[in-house]
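Minutes, methods subgroup
Present: GH (chair), OT, SY

1. OT presented the first of two proteins processed in the latest run. Sequence and structure tokens recorded below as shown on screen.
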Amino acid sequence: MDDSASGSKRKRDLRQDATEPEVFLYEGGEIAWEQRIEITRVRIGPQVEEIPCGTFRSYTNLTEVQFDEGALQVIGESAFAGCTALRGITIPPSVTKLGKRAFEHCGNLVEVHLNDGLRTIGESAFNYCEQLRSVTLPSTVTDLGADSFWECHNLVNVQLNEGLQCIDVRAFHACTALRCVTIPSTVTQLGGWTFYRCTNLSKVQFGEGLQIIGAGAFANCTSLQIVTFPSTVTKLGGWAFQNCSNLSEVLLLGGQRFLNEEFLARRLSDEEGILRQEVVGILTDDGSAFRGCPLTRVKISISWAVSERIARLPFERRLSVEERIRNLLRLELVPDGNVVAHFPLVRRYAAAEAEDDSDSEAEEMAVDIQDTNNATARSVYQLLKLIAFHELKESSILIELAMWKSRVDGDRSHADCRVAIPGPAKSLIMEYCGFAGFLRPALDGA
């Protein structure tokens, strides 16, 4: 054996695991180009702190990657991109960052296990991993990069944990097998087109804390039927739910922001409006958020204004109020006891340009939330009057009972001691409670 051949063999032995010859031991640096096809299994040595950019890119026969417990912190850009034979990977807890395109185009990657310690998943880290079935982000992950799971067509389950702060644009773009997702309360903003064309996505749960849903975030999610927005949401980007062809129910929990507090405090009449149109316009990006959806109305919770008051009424009076809600136009008592108000959606159209006017079709430009004819305002006004009437009636009974008790003595029968509240006193009670004028017709007819 000549000296050059002997040197080459010694170099190879330094990189090869002596106990398992078939496993290539990576200890840093570059790997000889001719070994690209030969390596099928690799072990990352304990002293390696970073796997550099493109180290194992397009190693098409690589089926297994082992990580020794050690110093590894970063898996660099495109480190394992195009490793089409790789079927599973477990990222050790020492790793804090997956670089851009780290596992891009690993078309047979089925399982990925991410451990606590990971903080950042870089842009396009797993895009086009078309066989990936499930992924759980540990609570230490704060940033999910743009396009990170782009077109992972078989991704069915995604678990996003509290601690995640940023979901960047197109993170789950066209993950067509994804069925449900829960957005943690620590996420304040969803990037644009995050779940665009997730055609099997049928359930989305938003945590309280989310403020902005980006442009096109759920556009073309054709299986989505019901969406409930937390009270913290202030903005839906343009086309956020465009062409969600089965979306039939939207509930806004933040009634305090969308509804006129002056109205709900009984300082405005039922003709002066309940909906804060300027706030709703900002929320829906001037009507484009629900374009192309079959929605006919949006529900806004008014529970914060009425539910606690209803709950304090005696059982019989509470049943009476609840029955009345069921008969009032555009009000709904939902199974959990909350009360929601319905507001119709009004569509705006613009005629599409065409050479032949007879073939032109009206193009839907926007969908606006409105209280047409103030019908919702009138129903809410009637409900507020009814609750106030029962509250005042209950207060009157208690005061009359107290007056009756104060007149009881040994020489008079209890029946003779009962005293009704004088009209002026009742008026003072109404004034004190803010009911003057508001309840007068109800009292006159009582």
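2. SY then presented the second protein from the same run.
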Amino acid sequence: MSSSRRLPAYALIIAINDLNGVGLQAPEPDAIKLSKTLASMGVPYIEMLTGPAATRQAIIQKLADIADNRRIVDDAPIIIYFGGHARRQLLAVPGVVPYPAEFLVPYDTLLSEFRRTSPVPPIPDVTISALLGRIARRKSKHITLLLDCCHAGSGSRDDDVDNAIDLALEVDLDKLIELDKDLWSELPSDIDNPSETNSSSRVAQNNRTSSLRYGGITSHVLIASCREDQLSQEYRTSYGCQALFTTALIEALIECKEDNVIWTVTPIGLFERIKMIMEDMQHRERALRPQHPQCEGYYKDRPIFSTPARPHGSHAIAPVVERGGRIILPVGLLAGIERHSVFDIYDYPQGRLKQVDRLRVHHVLDSEASLVAGHNLDLGPDAYAVMCTPPTALPVEMVVDFPALYNDKSFQASLVNTFGSHGPLGHFISPVRSKGKLSASYMRPDQFELRNVHGGVLRFRGISQVPDALYKAAMFFHHLGQTAPSPLASTNMISVFVVQLAEAYQTDVLREVNALAPRGQPTQIHPTRAYTVPVSDELFGLQILNNGAYNLYVYVFYFDPNDYSITPIYLPATSDIPLPAASGLVIGYGSSGAAPLSFTLANGAHEDKGFIKVYYSTFLSQLGSIQQDGFEEGRKSRPGDSPHHLPHHLPPQLPSVSGSITYPVTVFDPRSRH
């Protein structure tokens, strides 16, 4: 297990009140309180931009400077907070379908509106995303973004609308492009950054994004004060105005410090605390309207103030809810959980990681599983679960000298430890003489080969690498083969199309935005025959059509048998339904926020096979827990490389519909075919 390193964290706090003492008045006083709270926790480097200092240029420059600031340690935790106005409006960028952009409002934008002088454009989400991408590439990916501002069209946290300034948003697109085009051009692509792509994986994701909320970008986790359709509120006390979200944030941080978990608290753990405190405050302050915070991003189970993440990496499942002697997990049949699945439950009592119980699944639904604890575990918000073994054993043909190695007691102990199981080895590895999904060879001295039924071959040296390779193979084949369709699911419920993409812009200025649009007709792919595509530098998107009568959540993964990676192509960003009945969803372009795809070949290969797997359900599931990095010789799985936790939302009145469809893909080198 890895222990967290307490790297010196950096915090940037931006807060802007309304002008002349009317409207929004809590951000700047709240910012001072937040700064003092972070300092008391031991954050050594805190910078603030408040009031007149928080101009458009100053905010952008300060964010840009983080990437090259020598006072900030590489890979250090970075916390960025914004309190003030935000506005949400369709942004009609030429060549791109208009999307609901979010704009953070700096001081000089408010001032220009108040004085009715030449307007200063607010800062769009695509600009913030580009700056966060720069920080992630040059300094650290351990970024937590805290936004206390409205995502609704009005953008006001002030109930006194008569005293609020005119919030109509008229963006001068030409001026915006001129100001931010250089930053937009920094949005990275796989073509520009081939080193960031696993050479054996044919589906590569880049970091193009047009949204703070989700864009296939792995640079940050967002904790937002409210949903897109809600106001972020403040209220008056005897001490002055206070923002509901930031007040709860400060109380949650103080609680973490008092509970001695400040160095292990994760975004999802902090979010759960904030949510509970906000609910208590709303109960006391009856004038407050409903306001539901959101937590979004890939790395939601990575500690905020230390690094690396929790030791169980991408297969950790959170949040874990304790309810009446039962443990409720936000995963179910769709994620390969079965009734006899076993989970270890971990928590941080007194700030130390501890396995508090091992429990078997008692009841499982499409997107939820319950375990019977038998007693109150008193779990904290940072608790998580890890499945001990995949429910299905991997059939392995063992050839050459591999059987002798497999029967070695010390090797078996290492294998059991890697799988995190105290059960028999046969629960996850099944030796067979023929028709195995995997063939394992041990060719002395110290040379190993794993060959699977889909043509993938791993060759590596070192006995210590074998357990990790077998673990990844077992998880890969378990999730690839799992279907678990509900009775209401049908093979015709969804249709999937692949579409080639091209740059949408024709002018040199606008091309820098890297916008993409479909080129040519989409090609429907089928589960019964492989979609064949020649290797190239072209980018592709997906179109998914919902042919049924139920609103669906959709999750798309790429399964690569070359290295046993399970890579997310698309995961729902929020609890909002992404694919309503009789509608469509585009992935890789437009406003979906997901990255485009590229199909490549490993060096020297003439043909590769893989699988696009589309899961769907009427209930939101934390399906991101199935993803895993590919095997890489000489490297153990890094903790927390790819967790993606989703908000847990199970409306009981809906019918349960879920299933998955697997589409084979063959990438070939046209030069090797006649």
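Chair's summary of item 2: The chain is about 20% helix and 30% strand.
Next meeting: continue with the remaining queue.
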